[in-house]
Amino acid sequence: MTDNAAPATALEPVPAVTDTIAAELAEELEAARVGRSQIRQLSQRYPEMSIEDGYRVNRAWSELRQRGGREVRGHKIGLTSVAMQRAVGITEPDYGTLFDDMFFEDGQRIDPPLFITPKVEVELAFVMARDLTAVDATIFDVLDATAYVVPALEIIDARIERIDSATGASRTVKDTIADNAASAGVVTGGRPVRPHDLDLRRVGAILMRNGIVEETGVAAGVLNHPANGVAWLARRLARWGEYLHAGELVLGGSFTRLVDVSAGDVFTADYGDLGTVSFSMGGAS
Fold it and tell me: Phi then psi for 255, rounded to 5 degrees?
């Protein structure tokens, strides 16, 4: 007997979030950013959502912002602590995109507030001297491609609800990735240094809020060396056919815990020999 059934074919996995849905969610996230409001967790609305779906949404949001005239100035790396990765059930960092309107001057009073629930982290920023295109980039490739490293503070924010009002579920890493890895602002300052001029692992910082020490940390807490995160990012971008460009700034990952930011707060991070970086948060608009 002849079998007339069609031959079985291997099917590509269907994403829970298609490109069309990703574009719609990107519009929601941009409206939330502009309107200083939060939207419901994407992981609750799309239970089958994967980490790659989260990046699909983030990329759609990035493309939307660029079509609106914003310029990509670099990237941020998050979840570089092993403890944080275990807490959210992943085994690698995440990343987001830095746009030109996210950069603030050292000592600037950010007023009126541009954020919803801002927090601050202490980091080292890498400024690229040349393109980093290696698909198998290592820490040595990063150090060779870096013009200088400079102290930085990252302002974190959330355009997606932390707790779902209907279910009580907590936001997942998939939501955070879609939400540009929670990045919202960058302040750089202090003294830039060439990456081979000091042991970056041993760079320490004291974070003060209104003159009171809130956090301390050392850069080795970022994957044992902050350049390891940049190497990971270069390899991760290669999956999309992208790379780090000369002149871009990359936030290597925080080596302190998040500290809440309220209107009127003044933050200063003291990096010792590398100087200080600071900003203040203005009152309500």
Answer: -120, 25
